[in-house]
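Tutorial handout. Part one gives the primary structure; part two gives the three-dimensional structure as tokens.
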Amino acid sequence: MDKKTDFDQTKLEEMVGVPLDRLKPKRVHRNPELTLWEKIYVPEVVRGLGITTRHFVSNMIGFVAPPSGKKRSIFTVYYPEEKVELPPAYRGRPVLVAKADGTEKCVACGLCEKICPAKAITIEALENAMGERYPYKYTLDGSRCVYCGYCEEVCPKEAIVMSAEYEGLAERDRRQMIYSKEQLLRSEESVKGRLEYIRRIYAKWNY
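Part two.
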């Protein structure tokens, strides 16, 4: 592997936030030749049950009697006491980015509203005393959002990004999933990781 390939892979890992070996597609055998042992079928069922039992026992032991002074080896996250550390590529709840003074960066251009395939965004624009447009009302219908990220990609001001927020995305009452501008505003510092990610992924050299 040459140096250029190493560089490209390193940059790709930084952009995606996930090791490349986890993203490597698995090879699918469309027409495999089964052995006699596999054709009998029952031995393969027993082997599968053995694998499941092995994982169950190891996880149960790690849960009941974890090694003293060592970090547990099981993959279960004890939510809500523990939270998942998500990669920057994760697309959670869309949020509006606020400037240092607390006002929105959005200029109410309407591109996100236009491109949204689910028609989940509604904007009502006004002009301030300086003649600059701003969203008087910005409404996101979370029950319609499909988390595609088109709004983030099309925004010329980096005013809307897909955050790492995954809690509270489901409600029993859909009316609770309609978010106003005030509910969506987040400080630029709180979404700094996502902003750095989209600046890398949407960079000119990547096209």
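Part three, for discussion. The beta strands are 94-98, 121-127, 133-141, 160-162, 178-179, 185-187. The chain has two domains: 32-76, 94-206.
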